């Protein structure tokens, strides 16, 4: 376990690092101290200030990054106190987010100013002093400049409120939750995946700071099982909690349901500091997310997904919307959640067929992610098919991590995010041609993936053995793999109605070996022709 402490000068990185190191018995490293040692060894400049003055900030950041990378490579565990500006480099930020728990320490400007005194020995504070600014002003400026960088963390701790021991305890507790970060500067959020962790929901709401009231949106199937208990838990926070249950299923994913949410919210006087909490599958999440995106031009939403599909896919990434008579999800908005909390245990009440359908998206994610994830799924296949909670938690974490990474790279689906549509071209056509009844989305994705693999083999993009491997895995998980019944002219004609189509070309997501996914623009007729031959 590595824990990185970041934050403005005076936020308490060294002090909290000492307290954490004592609590956990993990070794402690101070990046600035190591750089100073190195400067004494390699360079004439003895101090960071001197190095900064002579060589400038970019040179210092490069040295800092190289030192940190070496430290990470050499130490798989430890508490790492970083320099205040280390995370201003996006590469450094992404590196440490992948290497351990990143904690931003903070306190008010006044508290920080008191702690740093005149700012001497702190190059960025000194610089401004030379220009006549005061420390308080300079701190406020740095805070504003670095707000996005400091927001990209697993947790924030206010060291004006928490003494070092309490801060260390809170950090250690958070480390046990192993949150996954979706780093989007000030819209950064965390995904919590665990077993029986729904009891921590109130604490996650408290992490958000001021929340004036809450609207819990669920459906009449999930509400009695889980949603009502969640509303009761949230009432312990003291704010008004309104509980709403919609009709269940895709047929309820309509503008009328959105209107029901809008009115329930406005009836109780929801305001810009309120929080909408979606407790349900992808339908509830998409509806509540869209209602939140549009209410008062945007209030916060948090997701508590209760289907496997929602945990591995729909709750992460900020796509929201509803269906119209023209098709699925044609009206919507991007609205990232404030957090996502997935409790694997709630899947215990989900119909077996629903859970199994969600596994198709897990296989898709593993194939996009790479060999290690596919091999892990193969090893876990029996346990996953039987609903084992440990194996399911592992699979959800893998898929959530992949989705977090892809959403960060391409939030609005202009390129890499489209990879997540692997298997979806035929799947959407199958669903649309059946009027979205009689086949679950995941089942259609399974068939669509088999077809995509076979098309890729025909195109010379995929080895036949790799395609057979994907098919075996889907089959072992109990998912349908027979493509033939779905290759009628009628089904294939629905591909032309797919909204991913660009002109007469379809952007076909072509699999190769695990981890090797390519977008191939194909003339529609050519793709249809390929598909016709995949029914072997
Ligand atoms: N926003 C996105 O990025 C995204 C991605 C993929 C899919 N989606 C959308 O997700 C929707 C499908 O989601 P879904 O598969 O979760 O379906 P769903 O939300 O309709 O849930 C399936 C059924 O299971 C019930 N249910 C849910 N959780 C339960 C639980 N724990 N115990 C018992 N019953 C439970 C629901 O009431 C419903 O009847 C589609 O509308 C699709 O468009 C969105």
Overview of the structural elements:
The protein is an alpha/beta fold and 536 residues long. The chain has helices at 13-24, 31-42, 48-55, 57-74, 90-99, 109-116, 123-130, 135-151, 164-177, 201-207, 222-235, 255-267, 282-294, 308-314, 352-369, 371-385, 389-409, 424-433, 441-458, 464-476, 489-493, 524-532; strands at residues 2-7, 28-30, 78-81, 101-106, 155-158, 180-182, 189-194, 213-219, 240-246, 275-280, 300-305, 319-324, 327-334, 339-343, 505-511, 517-523. The radius of gyration is 25 Å and the shape is globular. Residues 127-132 have low confidence and may be disordered. It has 22 helices and 16 strands. It starts with a strand and ends with a helix. Helix 2 (31-42) packs across helix 4 and helix 14 (308-314) runs parallel beside helix 15 (352-369). Helix 11 links the parallel strand 8 and strand 9. Strands 6-7-14-11-10-8-9 form a seven-stranded mixed β-sheet, sandwiched between helices. A five-stranded parallel β-sheet has the order 2-3-1-4-5, with helices on both faces. The relative contact order is 0.07.
Please tag this protein with its features.
50% helix; single chain; five-stranded parallel β-sheet; alpha/beta; 22 helices
Going by helix content, strand content and strand pairing, the class is alpha/beta
Overall shape: it is: globular
Share of residues in helices: 40-55%
What average pLDDT do the residues reach?
A: 93
Number of helices: 22
Query: Would you identify the regions where 5 or more consecutive residues have pLDDT less than 50?
Result: 127-132
Proportion of strand residues: 15-25%
Lateral arrangement of strands in the main beta sheet: 6-7-14-11-10-8-9
- Largest beta-sheet characterization: 7 strands, mixed
Radius of gyration: 25 Å
Q: Tell me which ligands are bound.
A: nicotinamide-adenine-dinucleotide
Distance between the termini: 49 Å
Report the strand count.
16
């Amino acid at each position: 376990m590595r824990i990185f402490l970041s934050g403005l000068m005076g936020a308490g990185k060294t002090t909290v690092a000492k307290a954490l190191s004592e609590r956990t018995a993990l070794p402690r490293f101070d990046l600035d101290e190591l750089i100073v040692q190195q400067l004494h060894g390699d360079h004439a400049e003895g101090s960071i200030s001197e190095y900064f003055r002579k060589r400038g900030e970019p040179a210092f950041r490069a040295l800092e990054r190289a030192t940190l990378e070496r430290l990470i490579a050499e130490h798989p565990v430890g508490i790492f106190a970083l320099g205040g500006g280390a995370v201003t480099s996006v590469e450094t930020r992404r590196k440490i987010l992948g290497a351990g728990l990143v904690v931003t320490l903070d306190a008010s400007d006044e508290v920080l100013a008191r702690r740093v005194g005149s700012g001497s020995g702190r190059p960025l504070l000194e610089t401004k002093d030379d220009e006549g600014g005061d420390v308080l002003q300079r701190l406020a400026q740095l805070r504003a400049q670095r707000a996005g960088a400091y927001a990209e963390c697993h947790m924030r701790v206010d060291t004006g409120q928490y003494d070092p021991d309490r801060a260390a305890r809170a950090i250690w507790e958070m480390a046990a939750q192993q949150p996954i970060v979706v780093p989007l500067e000030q819209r950064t959020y965390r995904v919590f995946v665990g077993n029986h962790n729904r009891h921590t929901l109130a604490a996650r709401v408290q992490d958000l700071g001021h929340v004036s009231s809450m609207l819990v949106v669920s459906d009449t199937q999930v509400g009695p099982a889980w949603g009502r208990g969640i509303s009761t838990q949230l009432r312990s926070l003291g704010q008004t909690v309104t509980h709403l249950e919609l009709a269940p299923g895709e047929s309820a994913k309509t503008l009328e349901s959105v209107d029901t949410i809008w009115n329930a919210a406005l009836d109780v006087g929801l305001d810009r500091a309120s929080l909408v909490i979606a407790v349900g599958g992808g339908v509830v999440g998409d509806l509540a997310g869209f209602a939140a995106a549009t209410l008062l031009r945007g209030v916060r939403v948090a997701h508590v997904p209760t289907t496997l599909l929602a945990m591995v896919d729909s709750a992460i990434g900020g796509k929201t919307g509803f269906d119209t008579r023209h098709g699925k999800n044609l009206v919507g908005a991007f609205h990232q959640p404030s957090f996502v909390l997935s409790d694997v245990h709630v899947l215990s009440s989900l119909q077996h067929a629903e859970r199994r359908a969600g596994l198709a998206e897990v296989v898709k994610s593993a194939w996009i992610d790479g060999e290690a994830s596919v091999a892990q799924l193969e090893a876990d296949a029996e346990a996953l098919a039987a609903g084992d909670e440990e194996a399911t938690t592992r699979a959800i974490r893998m898929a959530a991590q992949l989705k977090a990474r892809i959403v960060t790279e391409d939030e609005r689906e202009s390129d890499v995010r489209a990879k997540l549509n692997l298997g979806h071209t035929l799947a959407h056509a199958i669903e649309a041609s059946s009027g979205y009844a009689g086949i679950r989305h995941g089942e259609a994705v399974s068939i669509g993936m088999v077809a995509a693999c076979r098309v890729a083999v025909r195109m010379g993009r995929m080895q036949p053995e790799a395609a057979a491997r994907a098919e075996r895995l889907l089959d072992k998980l109990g998912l349908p793999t027979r493509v033939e019944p779905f290759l009628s002219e009628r089904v294939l004609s629905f591909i032309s109605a797919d909204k991913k189509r660009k002109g007469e070309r379809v952007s076909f997501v072509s699999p190769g070996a695990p981890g090797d996914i390519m977008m191939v623009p194909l003339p529609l007729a050519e793709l249809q022709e390929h598909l016709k031959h995949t029914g072997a």
